[in-house]
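Quick illustration for those who missed Monday's session on complexes.
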Amino acid sequence: MEETTTVANRDPGEGPWAWGAELDPMLQVRRARGLLTGRRGERALREAVEGRTVLLTGASSGIGRETARRLGHAGAEILLVARRRDRLEELAEEVRGQGGTAHVLPCDLTSADAIAELVEQIRADHDGVDVLVNNAGHSIRRTLERSTDRLHDFERVMELNYFGAVRLTVPLVADMRARGGGHVVNVSTMGVQFGYEPRFAAYLASKAAVDAFTRSAAPETRRDHVRWTTVYMPLVRTDMITPTKAFHRAPAMSVERGASMVLDGIVRRPVRVTHPFGTMSQAAQLVIPRRMEAAMSRTVGRRRAPETAVAPPAA
Ligand SMILES: NC(=O)c1ccc[n+]([C@@H]2O[C@H](COP(=O)([O-])OP(=O)(O)OC[C@H]3O[C@@H](n4cnc5c(N)ncnc54)[C@H](OP(=O)(O)O)[C@@H]3O)[C@@H](O)[C@H]2O)c1
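Prediction with NAP bound:
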């Protein structure tokens, strides 16, 4: 994370996420470089996005909403995608009020037909996009035991988190290649780096699938100047974690800091944006996998919090 990620007002509820971010040695190097060159924070973001078209999914709330606000402020032309039109309209008004450019493109990303229409609309009205941010997502927290008669949960999560992203990305990347380049930013979860997350099998599998897709797609499209970035997002205080009581008391990153990780990905275009705790847990996963598995298994026995409320299957 670089200066684009520096949050002026630190949220005390962030706990170790805030000081943990400072452990990244590359952050200090980038800060020093930024101080020397003067290319920091808002200026670096403006240089990266001004006049560029950025499509952001999941823009109606949480990390996506905050990312859109700051992209608009930095002079990007933003295409706002999510289902709730009223939320998107409100956000677009706010962006325009600050002198930015925003377009509202409501779409249910679980529908292949709706995505195909969205792509056609983008081609007709905007001549493709320079940056695609796949941020829309849905999480589910449920043990395998409680999932035996709810296998559709796995399909639902996959439909949005994996197929939704792929259905949008493949045609837009084809356009990027034809236009001479572009950038895809996927918002994943630190859970994929951590690897052992009881109750999150459906969610983590869908995010890991996007990772695997990206690792294969990136070398295919590299010569055509398409770059891919995965943001391994830690726990962030958004609507997504509200239903999980266990997270109410847990330290969570602020939405501003979460958005800063996405913006850092857009500015620097690295392969991955990660919190130092994510890198550490990825290393631990490689070195002591059984111990991690055993440690995490102990959390299943504890009745810490109810799981995601069981909704009736969709008709
Ligand atoms: N919060 C965390 O702790 C955390 C941790 C790791 C990773 N992440 C990832 O960060 C991303 C953003 O999540 P968030 O925390 O900001 O959650 P959020 O506030 O719940 O936002 C989710 C966004 O996804 C959109 N969305 C959901 N279903 C959709 C659908 N069928 N079609 C189109 N859009 C849809 C929602 O908009 P509509 O309801 O208007 O459609 C909303 O804008 C997600 O990919 C999530 O997996 C979050």
